[in-house]
Amino acid sequence: MYDERRARFTQDLLDEIRRLRDQTGGAQPSAGGLPANPLVLVVDDDAASTMALQALLAIEGFEVDTAANGAQALQCIARRKPCVVLTDVRMPEMDGAELCRRLAHDPETRDIPVFVITGHEPAAAGALPHAKGVLRKPVDTDLVISLLRTRTS
After folding, report:
1. What is the predicted pLDDT for the residue at 29?
2. pTM (predicted TM-score)
3. Is the Cβ–Cβ distance between 39 and 63 less than 8 Å?
């Protein structure tokens, strides 16, 4: 069931990317009043989901950095602080829960909003008190874009 939802999430994102490309004739739309290319960090061990979300966000005018787990995310954040972090929960090496805890307890990163994107029951993500919100896979792409625009404007 989880693999089915993961595949649907990826397909929905790719469909949305195609729709946006068709609307813009393949050109990048303007960022719509956003600060110059706000940086979003996407953390997920599923490469297809990461690439689809990265492409969608880039089309919408965001700069995107990616990591395959929490440990890589911390390295990315040490190099360049993002405006928002979108993270999966279940990942190898360091999961999303530990990433949230570490970010929340570090004075340099505690102000970064972290949103969890998960294909699991919200209760599994409920153990993440430091997350600003939980989005279920497959995500509503309009909701993600709206959320990011609110957090980065």
Report:
1. 43
2. 0.75
3. yes
